[in-house]
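Q: What would this chain look like folded?
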Amino acid sequence: MLYFDYTATTPIDEEVLETYIRVERSFFANSTSLHKLGQMSNLMYEKASEEIKELLGTPNHNLVFTANATEANNLGIYGAVLKHGSGRIITTKIEHPSVYEVFRNLERKGYDVVFLDIKADGTVDLEQLEKAMNKDTLLVSVMWVNNIIGSIQPIRQVIEIVKRNPKAKLHVDAVQGIGKILPDFDFSDVDLITLSGHKLYAPKGVGALLFRKQMELEKRLYGSEAQFGVKPGTISVALAASLCKALKKYLPLTAAHQKYVSELNRHLRKGLERLDYIVLNSGEDGSPYVVNFSLPGKNGETVVHFLEKHEIYVSTGSACSSKLKKPERTILALTNDEGRATSSIRVSLSHLTTKEEIDKLLEVLEKVKDV
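A: My prediction, written as structure tokens:
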């Protein structure tokens, strides 16, 4: 079995799993209970929260554990925008569905929404962003690393532009960057940050929203005041601890893993370039973990199932919208070519991937021409 869908999800790390099991057994009590067991659970929850903030360099942010990044994005964006009755909000045309669809919904509610174009390399048009900013801008949302083509957005420059408008806040979906790409910006300069555990070898069921302590988010959920009232309900201390463990393990390995995967990426691209019926969509300067290409004239889903017969697992796009029978939105925004957008394949790599696995993938892809 050859797995090339790490952008969709990753297998849980053994040490992270051991942390989950140990904490779930030892700190099972409700962290809001007043008795000793509850307070022990609360101390573990607070320790995980503080350690994550220390790892990211965000001491002036609150941290809310969520079920996943989709929930974190929804709580953060709606929370930042709905406290204002009107205003402008800005994002890109290639955001993850959990951001893009939220902006579309806010547009239906009457907010002034700007969807920014991307350049030929898949990065946001900064000049267009500057022109779109005005005194009524409430929020700008730009993902750090695109989940479909791997383009790395110039977050440092985006931060500088947003800072010129004191009223505006910046949200960064950091899901595909955390633990994979060395940032050229400080997380402390971002108002809202979202991330996901299962994209970084932690369990499914845990993500996080970090937001500045000075910010007050409009509530979307009602109940207790747990987690600043943003995500009320009983906290899974074990999931919080396992996310913390994953970050503690993988953040220090970011540079080494990025270097190794970059070598795999070059090897894969070189092999794909030899196949004249394949067109690369991912640029050379993007995340080495993502290689997207199209096979014009073929249906992406057909290719996925062909590879599946050979025990090779890839994707056509975002796992959150891959079952929708329509052109891949990011590829369409990048190429303006519906043929390429309906025939795109995403191969995503990991530090667990080997050169031999890539060679096998290339070998089988040579047979796709006749499918």
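The two ends are 21 Å apart (CA to CA).
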